[in-house]
Design a protein that fits this description.
The chain has 80 residues and is mainly alpha-helical. It folds into two domains: 31 residues; 48 residues, no CATH class. It is built from three helices and no strands. The longest helix has 30 residues. The radius of gyration is 18 Å and the shape is elongated. The structure holds zinc ion. The site of zinc ion has 8 residues, from helix 3.
Length: 80
Amino acid sequence: MLNRHLSNRHQMQAGIAHERSRALNRLKRALAPHPEALDTVGLCATCGGKAETFRDTLSAKEYTISRMCQKCQDGIFGDE
Ligand SMILES: [Zn+2]
């Protein structure tokens, strides 16, 4: 009985996490001027231009999260 209770609770939490990530994806799509870039590697979701070269691994990692090219990242985070 206790195990079943825990299992249900775990399933509920997994469901909430899933809903959250779906909501986040909807938000990303609503905010991105070029949402097609979210499904296409090498495109920038902000300016719609090419996003193929990055200054460093941090910028490359940022691209996987925000889908912003180096130029747009520099515009938002500042050129260092
Ligand atoms: Zn861009």
